[in-house]
Structure formats: C-alpha cells, structure tokens
Write a structure and sequence with these properties.
Elements: H1 17-43, H2 51-59, H3 61-89, H4 93-120
Helix pairs in contact: 1-3, 3-4
Length: about 120
C-alpha cells in the first residue's frame, strides 16, 4: 500500500533549458556568420562607403532574405535572453508578466521597423 505524503512537486519550465541553450548558440553562430558576410562585402568594395554602397550591399534578393533570417534569429535570441533575466530576477508575477509583455511588444515593433527599412532599399 502506497502512502502519498504532501503534494506532488511540479517543475515548470525545466524542460526548456537545453532547447533554449542550443537556440541561443545556433542564433549566435548565424549572426556571427552574417557579420562576416557583411564585413567581407565592405572590405572588398571599392571606393568610399556611403549610403549608395550600403544600399547596394543590401539590395540583392539573397541579401534581403539572409538579413531577414538574421533579424528573426536575433529576435529569438534576444527574447530567450531577456525572458530568462525576467524569470530569474523579477519575483512578483504581475511585474514579471508586464515586463515580458512589454518586451514582446518592443521586439515586434523593432522587427517591423527593421523589416520596413530592409525592404525599402
């Protein structure tokens, strides 16, 4: 006969650790590779670097798609990091939820602005 003393402990969020850790590493590598691609294009371009040169770098379709992918990766990277900070250091649930909602709204706004700038070129 089994006797159950106390309540069963429920661990919330513990199964996200490895996935989030791996996602942060993968997105960081993608952002680093993107930085190297942009640096290579800047270094191997001739003449002064002004608006026309930057617009030329980001005007091709493959670069727009790559930049869009990096923007999405960066949003997820930032979200995982800031969410973990809020969960670790902000104990009152109402304040933590408010900060998380604000962070999501801010990140979506930044993404919209970045995509708008990117596709205007």
């Amino acid at each position: 006969m089994a006797v159950n003393y106390g309540s069963k402990r429920v661990v919330v969020g513990a199964h996200y650790g490895l996935r989030d850790w791996l996602a942060q590493r993968v997105t960081a590598v993608l952002m680093a590779l993107f930085t190297l691609v942009v640096l290579a294009q800047v270094i191997f371009s001739s003449g002064p670097i002004g608006y026309d040169k930057w617009a030329g770098i980001f005007s091709s379709q493959w670069m727009k798609v790559l930049t869009f992918s990096v923007i999405v990766a960066m949003l997820y990277h930032v979200w995982v990091g800031i969410r973990d900070i809020w969960m670790d250091y902000i104990k009152p649930v109402s304040i933590r939820l408010s900060l998380q909602v604000f962070s999501i709204v801010w990140l979506v706004g930044c993404a919209g602005w970045a995509i708008q700038v990117l596709w205007r070129l």
